[in-house]
Design a protein that fits this description.
The protein is an alpha/beta fold. It folds into three domains: 34-135, no CATH class; 139-282, Rossmann fold (3-Layer(aba) Sandwich); 288-406, Rossmann fold (3-Layer(aba) Sandwich), CATH 3.40.50.11810. Helix content is 50%, strand content 7%. Helix 3 (44-51) packs across helix 5 (74-85), helix 11 crosses helix 21 and helix 19 (352-367) crosses helix 20 (379-389). The N and C termini lie far apart (45 Å).
Amino acid sequence: MMGKSSWMVKTFFKMKPGVAGKFIKGMLGAKKYYRSIGAAVVNMKDLVRCMCCPDMCKFECPSLRVTRKEMYAPATKARIAYHIERGDLDPANPHTAEIPYMCTNCNGCKHWCPMDISTGQLLKGVRADLVARDCVSDDLKDFDTRVLENGTTFTKTTFTSRPEFDVRAENPDVFYYMGCVMAEKKPEAVLANMAILKKAGVTFSTLAAERCCCGGPSNTVGFQATTRHLAAKNLALFARSGAKTIVTDCPACADTLRNTYKELGFKHGYMVFTTVEFFKLLIEQGTLKLSKPVNETITYHDPCITARYFDDVTSARAILGKIPGLVLKEPFLTKEETQCCGMGGVSHVHHPEESEAIGKQRYDQLLSTGAKFIVTACPACEQGFMIAAGKDSTRVVDIAELIAAAIE
């Protein structure tokens, strides 16, 4: 943290006494700018700090990178959001209300921010305030209606289209929580995860016939009431399953179950793991052995949530390093400096063209390694890369598929 902020300290001590005095006076009097026109979800203090920054993170912002419009730079979005919250800009104007949504919530800004602020997290609060004022697009309202009616971000059959998805065990070791995107777009990875758990002797339930979305996407775009509704349903399902540990194949689901539920007032004691975290633990315990060679060359994409929200860039590589015959080629931008797949922030719903452009940029970066397969551990990333790959979508592989191929 101090490493990112050291330039600010040096700048302060180089100020002339009069300038330093004005600086301190401004800092002490900043509270008067923290007020919004009404009750606000967004953290106004951090919003002010972000909007006053010289945009040191702008080079990392994927939305700015593909649009090349300064209005979509992180600090500019914060300034516009601030004036929305203060009542200076009319949120009923669709051009104004659109700005806080031009963000994939990748947290790249926070990685470089000297104040450790996530513009994306701030914009989630602004979006919730826009929803409260009924100032969101029809596309987003339709999305919310679909989630409420279908229980998923896709269709009512997302979790029930395959009977083998529905697993019920008495007093299971874990509840395997498949994500909506994984079940809908990468069913082969769901089956791979199940095969791995069975091979390791882990009993699990999915109760897929009664499943619904975690509510994370709804929370991201501001529909907190929908997230609360889904949280109550999910927690009741977990309680009925008898499991005390949740294992999910979707980092966004993991973040929602671990953090968002508690932020919205749903306290629970469940241990929540991503499949990568859990499989690494099984390997360390000796209950999962990867002994079958997989003679392929791959590159690995770090999902933004795993790398930047969970600070985990080692678990996947620890697993990949155990697979005989596998050759890993790292992309130039990797680990904490990964770049977004374009699907974050539910961007494919409200800004599909920009979402696909961001995904194509990252896909091309990964292809430039010369690897045959692109491997990751996030269904949203996989969806973004499969869109970018077109007819070559089979080269996009979930890490579970590799693990399943390496077990005897």
